[in-house]
Design a protein that fits this description.
The protein is mainly alpha-helical. It contains 1 helix and no strands.
């Protein structure tokens, strides 16, 4: 009986360490999945912000160009009059 108890105790120790090792592995996998999700969301936010910045620059350039055209038109009218 003592030999069976010793074997059972030894198996329990083996299984216990395997479970604790597996638990840390799967906990790490969950943390990795969460980190990947955060990275993907941040990447999408960055790409959107970058696209908005490009659009704003284009709008600013168009506004300056239009303003210059208006001032040139007004100047031409005032000089011819």
């Amino acid at each position: 009986m003592n030999a069976a108890e010793a074997d059972l105790s030894q198996l329990e120790k083996k299984i216990g360490s395997a479970v604790s090792k597996a638990r840390s592995y799967y906990d790490t996998r969950i943390l990795l999945r969460d980190a990947k999700e955060k990275l993907t969301k941040a990447k999408h936010r960055f790409e959107r912000a970058q696209a908005l910045q490009v659009a704003a620059k284009e709008l600013a350039f168009a506004s300056v160009k239009t303003t210059k055209s208006i001032f040139l038109f007004i100047y031409m009218i005032s000089c011819s009059g």
